[in-house]
Design a protein that fits this description.
about 0% helix, 2 domains, single chain, about 290 residues, mainly beta, elongated, 17 strands
């Protein structure tokens, strides 16, 4: 199983959740979500979720997205501007020494790895030290080897992030501390590697490790994070679901808006996940309008 700074550090909305719908961004605000490190072994192989872990331990706080309890100082640099001294790069790290990337600092540039190149951490996952090139970060870390692959930070500005690489989108989390150009995917096809699912974060769909117990994460099951449902399902607020008992959020299937009656539950209808998302105009979720 891999720790990807995905499994290791994304947190959102209190104890994490993911969703969409009428107010999708209220559930999955890309920039305000928080990735947190979890050392639990997933059966798949993220950006961070431990699905149903006990929050009593500091290393198993939540799935891919959770709210940090810490109050870090203002970042000392910007990954968009790369305004560190020569020979340094701006990197996410854990100022609080907790399980989330919660601030930014200048770290030495010790390598020249670009997107897709192999990389090695110089310290722990959250130390902000690796051998990727300027404007790149080591991602999808194998805990046994401390190795992963480099990914690029987003370009543009925090309000208008862009990615120069084709077929990638800007994934933002932890109040913007994390902003990475990750591969796009198709939620209706679920074209991600084994052990991962195509999940929505902010304005993009990207592949993240599926962090959920075997047999869980299906329609009506409780979820506490964006990737805490099985591939093909999305974590939604109970108000938008026909059945989600004794919980705030539950899993529900994605559906194809172009099909007639695509939802298995007769009480649900196919509702657009993101109406202005031109790249995925057919993507919906099986739910109800409150």
């Amino acid at each position: 199983m891999y720790f990807s700074p995905r499994t290791l550090g994304i947190a959102l909305l209190g104890m994490c959740l993911m969703g969409c719908g009428v107010d999708m961004d209220a559930v999955t605000d890309g920039g305000n979500s928080t990735t947190s490190v979890t050392t639990s072994t997933n059966t798949s192989g993220p950006i961070t979720e431990d699905s149903t872990t006990d929050a009593s331990t500091t290393e198993e706080l939540c799935p891919i997205i959770c709210e940090s309890d810490f109050g870090p100082p203002l970042p000392e640099c910007s990954t968009y501007e790369e305004n560190c001294e020569d020979g340094e790069k701006c990197m996410p790290y854990s100022w609080s020494h907790g399980p989330v990337w919660d601030s930014l600092k200048c770290s030495p540039v010790t390598g020249d790895g670009h997107s897709g190149d192999p990389c090695t951490l110089a310290g722990g996952v959250l130390t902000g030290e690796d051998d990727c090139a300027l404007h790149h970060m080591c991602w999808d870390i194998d805990p046994e080897t401390n190795m992963g692959h480099c990914v690029s930070f987003c370009d543009g500005t925090p309000d208008n992030p862009t990615c120069a690489e084709p077929d990638t989108g800007c994934f933002m989390a932890n109040a913007g501390v994390l902003n990475l150009c990750l591969p796009n995917c198709q939620p209706l096809i679920q074209d991600c590697p084994e052990g991962e699912g195509c999940y929505r974060f902010g304005d993009i769909f990207t592949c993240l490790p599926t962090v959920v117990s075997e047999g869980a994460g299906f329609e009506g099951d409780v979820c506490h994070g964006g990737n805490a449902c099985q591939p093909g399902f999305i974590c939604m607020y109970a108000d938008y679901l026909p059945s989600c008992e004794m919980a705030t959020t539950c899993c529900t299937p994605f559906c194809d808006l172009s099909e007639q009656d695509p939802c298995p539950n007769p009480e649900a209808e196919c509702i657009a996940v993101h109406e202005d998302n031109e790249s995925n105009p057919k993507v919906g979720y099986c739910g109800v309008l409150p």
